[in-house]
What does this fold into?
Amino acid sequence: WSKLYFRKIHRTFTYKIYETKVIDAKDNDAFPFFEDHEVLMIYTCYPVNTLGHKTHRFLVYAEKTGEVYDK
It folds into this structure.
C-alpha cells in the first residue's frame, strides 16, 4: 500500500494506508476507534464526479508508522 505524510507544526507523521472502501452514507460502523494504536481515517462523498446528494462515502484507513520532529 501507499504511504501518507501528514505535516503539523514542527512534526511530520507517516502513515501506511491499509484499506480503502466505499460505504453507505448512513453506515456509522465504519468509523473505528482504537485505544492501543492510532488510525487516520480520511473520507469524502462518493461518487466524487457527480453533483447533488451523495449516497455513499469513500474511506481511506491508515496506521501511524512514524513521527519526525522537524527542525
About this structure: The beta strands are 3-8, 11-24, 39-46, 56-69.
